[in-house]
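// run 5 | inverse folding | seed 20
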């Protein structure tokens, strides 16, 4: 069994990180199909709202709720599920879980400051991803959860969010706020903000925003114990031995630079990288099983096939073939450089990290069969990246 298959069989959480546009979502979905084929009840959790994934998985829609992916003859006994993080809806669900009673919950949900915060892009996404992760990995319904992280360099936010949240909740100001009666808090905010700030706030949103802000802080503070507990649990889970981080990249220089930043960022956060997947990789012609079908024959006999009539035509064809040869050489050189760059990057991966490559396919994977095909290539022992 290949090392990738072993990883899919043995882990409970696989987090795919990587630079933008390298194929993280595609690889996460492909590995999800593979894991289900290996008999593991798998969930692919994506943050990428790209419509393409929905159709590739054969679903008509994908949202916050877990959806079963029909695998047909590709699958076995184990089901594959997918869900797409909708930060707003996920945040609401989170409040529902940690708020103590119905009234408490509806007060938060209808609060304007809360709505603004939970729907805004940015850190809110990382918190929600982290919380959803907690939920999914705690569930008995899945043997393996594959998390596809957002298309930014800040996939590290996923790791930082729990700590940042804990730090925020620990700040003395929150403790101070916690001890204030709601009316006192409102009065303090008004006093501290001063006339100018208050004037600006009223101009922007009206006087009641200050009330909403005070109410939000008070409610948020009262959620502290639940958040804190879960943030700590997620922090532990992300570094647990049942969890593996896979770094997906392409062999292009810009992507490798971003990938190096992520690799070092993970190491600095005490996370061990378990797999490096160089996606959309190129290999020299004729040098690898992927290029078995490619025609690597020299163009030498092409001239005879063209059957030129007369010297003029012969010279013309000959010049054309020279152009084609040069073009082919340029492509081969480019592939060689990309391959060398991928190898050099792989040298910097930590010890024990799996290093594999996946070919740049002629056709973008557009259905479950193509995803299964890509996964089979990744899991092929010959995909291992080595000198
Ligand atoms: N091995 C491959 N061969 C050919 N095309 C691929 C391959 N892997 C991914 N693609 C294509 O590359 C594009 C980007 O893939 P994908 O959306 O999975 O990247 P991503 O890293 O998730 O991007 P983002 O950072 O925007 O979330 C898609 O059009 C996808 O079909
Ligand atoms: Mg993506």
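// decoded
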């Amino acid at each position: 069994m290949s090392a990738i298959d072993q990883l899919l069989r043995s882990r409970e959480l696989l987090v795919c990180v990587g630079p933008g546009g390298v194929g993280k979502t595609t690889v996460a979905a492909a590995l999800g199909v593979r894991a289900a084929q290996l008999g593991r009840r798998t969930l692919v959790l994506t943050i990428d709202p790209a419509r393409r994934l929905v159709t590739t998985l054969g679903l008509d829609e994908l949202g916050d709720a877990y959806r079963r992916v029909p695998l047909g003859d590709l699958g076995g006994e184990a089901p594959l599920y997918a869900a797409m993080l909708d930060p707003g809806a996920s945040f609401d669900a989170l409040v529902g879980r940690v708020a103590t009673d119905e009234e408490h919950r509806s007060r938060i949900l209808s609060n304007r400051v809360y709505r603004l915060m939970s729907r805004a892009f940015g850190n809110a996404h990382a918190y929600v991803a982290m919380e959803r992760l907690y939920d999914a990995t705690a569930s008995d319904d899945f043997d393996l959860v594959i998390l596809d992280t957002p298309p930014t360099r800040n996939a590290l936010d996923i790791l930082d969010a729990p700590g940042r949240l804990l730090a925020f909740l620990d700040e003395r100001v929150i403790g101070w706020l916690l001890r204030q009666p709601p009316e006192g808090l409102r009065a303090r905010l008004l006093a501290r903000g001063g006339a100018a700030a208050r004037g600006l706030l009223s101009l922007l949103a009206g006087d009641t925003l200050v009330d909403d802000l005070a109410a939000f802080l008070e409610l948020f503070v009262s959620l502290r114990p639940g958040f804190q507990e879960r943030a700590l649990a997620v922090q532990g889970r992300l570094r647990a031995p049942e969890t593996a981080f896979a770094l997906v990249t392409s062999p292009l220089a810009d992507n490798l630079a971003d990938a190096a930043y992520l690799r070092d960022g993970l190491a600095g956060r005490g996370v061990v990288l378990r797999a490096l997947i160089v996606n959309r990789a190129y290999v020299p012609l004729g040098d690898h099983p992927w290029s078995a079908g490619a025609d690597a024959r020299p163009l030498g006999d092409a001239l005879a096939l063209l059957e030129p009539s007369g010297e003029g035509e012969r010279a013309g064809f000959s010049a054309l073939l020279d152009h084609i040869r040069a073009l082919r050489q340029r492509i081969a050189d480019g592939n060689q450089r990309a391959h060398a760059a991928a190898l050099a990057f792989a040298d910097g991966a930590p010890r024990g990290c799996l290093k594999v490559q996946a070919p740049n396919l002629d056709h973008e994977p557009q259905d479950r069969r193509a995803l299964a095909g890509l996964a089979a290539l990744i899991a092929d022992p010959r995909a291992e990246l080595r000198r």
